[in-house]
Every structure is written in structure tokens, then in C-alpha cells.
Amino acid sequence: MARILITSGPTRQYLDPVRYLTNSSSGKMGSALADAALNLGHQVVVVTGPVDLTYPSEAEVRQVLTTDEMLATCQREFPACDGLIGAAAPCDYMPTSVSSQKISKTGESLKLELWETPDVVATLGSTKRADQWTVGFALETEDPHFRAITKLERKSCDLIVLNGPEAMTSDRNSIELLDPQGRALLSCEGAKIKIAKQIMDVVERQLIEKAKCSTNA
Ligand code: C5P
Questions:
Q1: Which ligand 1 atom lies nearest to the CA of residue 122?
Q2: In which band, very low, low, confident or very high, does the pLDDT at 168 lie, cut at 50, 70 and 90?
Q3: Residue 163 among the catalytic residues
Q4: Measured distance CA(149)–CA(57) in Å, rounded
Q5: What are the residues facing 138 on neighbouring strands?
Q6: pTM, two decimal places
Q7: 216 alpha carbon to ligand 1 midpoint, in Å?
Q8: Other CB atoms closer than 10 Å to residue 17's CB: what's the count?
């Protein structure tokens, strides 16, 4: 049995008390992966941004709002976990300043200055122990294989799931699961629930069982 950390859903970066930057991630892929991992007998911790769904009741769920909070929560949880699946779509940018009061309209244009937020998967990947593994997601619209493999390397992932923008809100997805050599270990499309089972079967064989063997060796 492994303990698996799954990031899921979007994060928010506030401009003022009522306005924020975000994206349309639904959390459905993260939830489907949590379900598939639990069905294989694993423990699951889900770190999620605000979503409109209920995660499986057996999963330990940690709610966060911002990308910084998602990173801090994952950094607390990861040492006790065997692996990470980064299915979230954390907001990549945050305003350089957050107004404590609602920003009033002035009739003028409003310029936003943004900083990049930290990358959760890359940060955990760069500090993972030899017995830990990480799986990232890559949502690409051009040159998908090259970009996904570049991302896998940059974020120190053991595997990466390549999907397209149609994945964001849909119940369905079309994915390839790539290894560091660029080989597709899995290529499938269909309901996220079904795809999540297939991804978890490969994660089980390629990462969880291998980690178990090297610990016992
Ligand atoms: O760079 P990009 O956002 O396409 O990378 C996607 C992968 O990186 C996903 O696994 C996502 O969960 C993760 N990510 C992250 N923190 C960010 C941005 C992306 O963990 N700030």
C-alpha cells in the first residue's frame, strides 16, 4: 500500500477582496485519480483548490485557495507520502500587490503587474527522496510531445500525462502517459474515471511496485 498525494483543481490569486485570477479546472481528473488509487488499496491525500465536486469520502482532503497555500500544504504532506500526482492547474501568476479594499473604477485603464507563482510539482520534484516518485500533467496546444518531455525533465517527474485543453472542464479526456525517454506507456481516450484507472495501473506497475522492490532489496 502506498500513500499518494494528489493535487487537484484550480487555485485563485486575489487582486482585491472580491476579484481574482483563476482558470476553469474542474478537479474531475484529480477526483477520478483519487478514486482509482483508493480502489487499488492506497491511501490518498488530496490538496485541492475551490471546486464544485465532492472527493471520495475515504480520501483525506485539504482545501487551499492560492498556489502558495497549495505548495505549503503539499510540502507538509509530501514527506509522509510515497508519491505525488500533480493533476491541479495552479494559477501561474499572482498580482504583485493585493488591495485590501475593493478596487474602485476610475474611468481609466487598470494595469496589472504579475509575478510567477511557485511551481508545486517542480518544487516537490527537486527535493524528492530516492524512494519517492512524482507524476505531472502537461496541457499542450502545440508541439505536445516535445513540450511535455521538456516539462517532465524541468519538473523532475518520473512520468507525465499529456492532454489537451478540452480536458479542463469535461467528463472525458484524451491522454498519453509518457516516460522520460518519450515513450508512450499508455494512450487512451474516454471518461476520466476510466482513464484514471488506466493511469493508476501504469503508476502501480512502473512506480509503486518498483519503489517497493528497491526498498526491499
Ligand atoms: O507548466 P504547466 O502549468 O503546464 O505544468 C503542468 C504541471 O505542473 C501539472 O502537473 C501542474 O499540476 C503542475 N503545476 C504546479 N504548479 C504550478 C503550475 C503547474 O504544480 N504553479
A1: 20
A2: confident
A3: no
A4: 34
A5: 162
A6: 0.96
A7: 32
A8: 12
Spatial separation of the C-alpha atoms in residues 86 and 192, rounded to whole Å:
15
Beta bridge partners of 8: 48
CA angle 85, 12, 65 (to 5 degrees): 70
Mean predicted confidence (pLDDT) in 171-185: 94
Which atom of ligand 1 is least distant from the CA of 88? 12
Catalytic residue (choose from 23, 163, 173, 216):
23
pLDDT tens-digit readout, 98-154: 999 999 999 999 999 999 999 999 999 999 999 999 999 999 889 999 999 999 999
Report how far residue 38's alpha carbon sits from residue 8's, in angstroms, rounded to the nearest whole number: 16
Instruction: Tell me the one-letter amino acid at 160.
Output: I
Q: Predicted confidence band at 82 (pLDDT cuts at 50, 70, 90)?
A: very high
Q: How far is Cα 45 from Cα 83, in angstroms, rounded to an integer?
A: 11
